[in-house]
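Re: the 190-residue chain
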Amino acid sequence: RLKGSARSVAGVHIRDALDAVASRHPGLIDKFGGHAMAAGLSLEREKFDAFRAAFDNEVRRHLNSDDLQGILHSDGELSPAELCLPLAEELRQAGPWGQGFPEPLFDGVFEVVSYKVLAEKHLKMVLAPPGRQHLVDAIAFNKAPLPQPSDGHSGDPHTRQQVRIAYRLDVNEWRGQRSAQLIVEHIEAA
């Protein structure tokens, strides 16, 4: 038996979507409950693929493909001087964050000074902000490989790649040292 929880997006009443699946496919879902933005359910493991297809069809009845694209709302760009530990600490202390009060999300274009892939799926980067006053560490979970420019090649190997990122400014604590770090939510070639 599988048990799961769901969170919704604007335009989909998640409990009603589960109710529609249960009505159209009797016996597919054992139990479910919830409200517009969150729900829980249980079903037999062997029914999961059928549930996934039925649920996908139900959600697509309410949304088009454009609605299914993620939308990031940025709080704007930070200046290079603001990419610092004191501001990261202030933001950390300003929480708690949650629905209706999201953690600040910033965006900007950076030069990739260096990067490595961790555990075959995460990008650990050193980035240079505009003006290059200093460098800043960044981590992009589940975002590897590094996005390439849309022309399909990286161009001059001596020119560092530019990326546009949406990120959260956070505190990195490693081996007793504290530093500012960007937690990358979205990355694309600039």
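The two ends are 45 Å apart (CA to CA).
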